[in-house]
Amino acid sequence: MKIIDRLSARQTFSFEIFPPKGELPLETAYEVAGEMARDCPDWISVTYSAGGSGNSANTVPIAASIERDLGVTALAHLTCLGSTSDDVDAYVDSLGEAGIENVLALRGDRAPGREARDFGHASDLIAYLRDRGSELCIGAACYPEGHVESPTEEESFRALYLKQEAGADYLVSQLFFDNEDFYRFREKCLRYRVRLPIVAGIMPFTSVKQIQRMAFTCGASIPAKVVKRLVLAGDDPADQARAGVEYACEQLADLAANGVDGLHVYSMNKPSVAHAAREALLACGYLEA
Ligand code: FAD
C-alpha cells in the first residue's frame, strides 16, 4: 500500500525502528517489529544508516520482513550523500524485489569522508527517482524549527518546495518538543507554497543527556516545560524515561486534536513506547479500537 493513498484516506499512525547496532542479530529487529505490529500502525519505517551508524545493509531485509511476515506497510529510508546513481539504482531494485512501495528520500547527515557524489540534496535524489520513472511513493523530511544547516527560514522552506516540485508525495517531520512550533510551521508551509501532507514526528525524551544530544543533532529546542518535567522526574533514569513517554503522549493527543495529517512515533525500538502512544490516541479518539 502506498502511504500517500493512506494519507489521502485518513489520519495515519506509524512507528519507526532502526536496524540493530553492532553485533546484535537481525532477529532482534524482527522481534521489535513483530511486537509493534500488534499496535496496528499504518506503517513502520526503517532507518538507513541513521546518525552515520553505517548500518544501511539491513534496512531492506527488515522492511521486507515487515511487509511479508507481518503484513504491515514498510517505509524504507534511503540517504544519498556519498552515493552514486548506480548505488541508488541497486537499492531501488532491491525494494522492487522485496515488494516495498515506499521510500523516505533523504540527504543524510554530513560526516567526515561522506562527500556528495551524484546527489547534493534530497531533492536531487527525489528528482532522480522520478526521472527514472519510479512509481515508488516518496516521502521527504521536514523541520518545524528549520534544518540546522539552513541559515534562514526562506532557505529552509525553499528546500521543502524543491522536494515537492521534484516529486515528493508527503513530508515527515523532525522531532519537536513544543507543538506550537509545528503549528507555526504548518501555517508557514502554505505561505511558501508547500502543500504536501505533513506527518508530525514525535520522540519521547529519555534522559537529560539524550535530550541535549537531540538539541544539537536535530536543532530541536527544549522548552521550559520539558526541563521542568525532567527536574520533577528526579535522578532515576526510569522516572525520567517515564516522564518522557507521558509528555510525548500529551503532545500526540494535542496534535490529534489539532487536525494533523498523520502522527509518526520515533519509538526507538521500544514496543512499550509504541504501545503507550496507541493507548493515548485511543483515549482521545484519534484511533478506533
Ligand atoms: P536536504 O533536503 O538535502 O536538506 C539539507 C540541507 O540543505 C538543509 O539545510 C536544506 O535547507 C539545504 N538545501 C536543500 N536543498 C538545497 C539546495 N538545492 N540548495 C542549497 N541548499 C539546499 N538520516 C539518516 O542518516 N538516516 C535516516 O534514516 C534518517 N531518517 C530521517 C527521517 C526523518 C523523518 C528526518 C526528519 C530526518 C532523518 N534523517 C536520517 C536525518 C537527515 O538525513 C538529516 O536531517 C540531514 O541533515 C538532512 O536531510 P534532508 O533529506 O532533509 O536533506
Description:
- The chain is of the alpha/beta class.
- It has 11 helices and 8 strands.
- The longest helix has 21 residues, at 237-257.
- The chain is globular and about 50 Å long.
- The two termini are 21 Å apart.
- Flavin-adenine dinucleotide binds next to strand 3, strand 4, helix 5 and helix 6.
SSE series: HEHEHEHEHEHEHEHHHEH
Main sheet: strands, sense, barrel = 8 strands, parallel, barrel
Helix content: 40-55%
Shape: globular
Q: What are the distinct ligands in this entry?
A: flavin-adenine dinucleotide
Find the count of extended strands (DSSP E, 2+ residues).
Answer: 8
Task: State the strand order across the main sheet.
Answer: 1-2-3-4-5-6-7-8
Please render the helix and strand layout as text.
Blueprint: H1 3-9, E1 12-17, H2 27-37, E2 43-46, H3 59-70, E3 73-79, H4 85-97, E4 102-106, H5 122-131, E5 137-142, H6 153-166, E6 170-173, H7 179-191, E7 198-202, H8 208-218, H9 224-233, H10 237-257, E8 262-265, H11 271-283
Parallel strand pairs: 1-2, 1-8, 2-3, 3-4, 4-5, 5-6, 6-7, 7-8
This protein binds flavin-adenine dinucleotide (FAD).
